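Q: Can someone sanity-check these two? First one:
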Amino acid sequence: MAYQAPGKQEMKSVLEEAKTIAVVGLSDKRERTSYQIAKAMQDAGYRIIPVNPEIDETLGEKAYDSLTEVEEDFDIINVFRRSEYLEDIAKQAVETNAKVFWAQQGVFNEKAYEFLKENGFTVIMDMCIKVAHSITIGK
């Protein structure tokens, strides 16, 4: 099955309904894109859960080593890792309660997409969540 991005209205619904975003690959370094995007989403009212085994906390939140170790529910998985890691992250994703998998701009993997769709996920790849938020919700 070829990747098909959700439409603008579906992305808007996802962003309006979500309250918590688990950010895989979130850095604690302010100059990194992952930090800047997650901070902007936090400022927009979302709870951010860092997922990165290299850090203890960032943005005032405890960091977890993997998605499966996060102790609370989250709505969106936002990924800041290279495309070749998406299949492994997708396998973790299906073990969570989340149903939205969002890979940042430049990040795409067809096999991960197919696996996630087969497991009932809304999948958005190669799209910045902050840009989508500003386009669809306009904050």
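And here is the second, same format, sequence then tokens:
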Amino acid sequence: MGLSTRVRLRVSPGSRKTELAGRHGGGWKIRVSAPPEDGRANDAVLDLLAERVGLPRRALTIVSGHKARDKVVEMTGIDAEEAERKLS
């Protein structure tokens, strides 16, 4: 086990659509249609990332930025190189 990686995100909640919008500095920009209320935008972010990298939702955890636009998500079961490839 022990295989995991962290990705930096800049999240824009309340967008028209939910999508991975490409690179943002050293991380990724994500737009989600969910509002930033009751953790709904965070759930949408994790759902989108899990789908893109092919991991179960439970393998992803927000490790910082729960209430901020800048977040760090840890993905268990994938290395940085593979995560990068699947997000690109």
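A (reply): Looked at the second one. The chain has a mean pLDDT of 96. The radius of gyration is 12 Å.
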